Amino acid sequence: MAEKNSQSRKHLFAGIVVVLVATGGVYGYYHYNQVYPSTDNAYVNANLINVAPKVGGYIEHVYVKENQLVHKGDLLVDIDPQDYSLALNKAQQDLTFAKQQAANTQQMINNAKASVASAKSAYEFAAQMATRYTNLYQQKAGSLQDMQKYQTQATQAKQTLDQANVSLAQANTQYQAAVTQIDLAKTGVENAKNNNGYTQLRASVDGYISNINLQTGEYVSPGQKLFGLVDNSSWWVDVNYKETQLKRIKAGQKASVELDMYDHKYHGIVQSISYASGNTFSLIPAENATGNWVKVTQRFTVRVKLDNDPQFPLRVGASSYVTVDTTK
Asked: Which candidate among 43, 152, 207, 216 keeps its CA 20 to 30 Å from the CA of 269?
């Protein structure tokens, strides 16, 4: 009897130990998931630049191919520049003509100024003579004929001076118009130079060519997407955490990232947490005002910044498993 009681106590003790171990395991698992929240609802992303021409024309040469690594400033595509070179020559000719016109009107101004100076001097002399002979006539020391003669000369000299001033004003107006034409011509040359330069498409960043299907001789329009360029300088993972997992996650915390395609662990930093759930931007957002509402746990995007590893290159859209260390 005593032996049976002893065995029962052993079984009871063993059962208690099992329950405690199981409870501890469950609590440990729960606590670990709270401190190190993780999810496989995460995808690699980067800036995807659409390469498009600013001018239209026929493709003269394609220098790149699919998935090729290019560096900032590398020549990607040539568009036939013939029309734009002709436009540049025409704009430069227009500028030369406008400058010549300005030089001609400047000479007109110089001539008009000389005419004004001469007419002013003649008028001042004629006015003095008219005043003198008017005074002599009033003093009965001069004749009426002389007074009228010099008054007429003064009037004519004044008219000549007025006409010279009008000519000077017209010359100044023409010069201002010529200067305006020079400014317009300079703008035309600058635009023509830009358009001529736009026939060469160059890489704006270091990155990888993506989705290219471009042939020599093909016509392209301004703004037409030709292919993509994956920016190699900025990589991140968009991690879609459940709202219940966000309690401890903060910007600046460290994260480990594993991609399905590699047996390699990346190290990242939490950059930001979205202020809107993924459902907010869906085409048909959930309507929770109806009577048959069912609560659904929402997901919010946490952005984790990554540095690319040349041995294990990141690829946009790659599935990943992310764990954030919230202890710091």
From this structure: 207
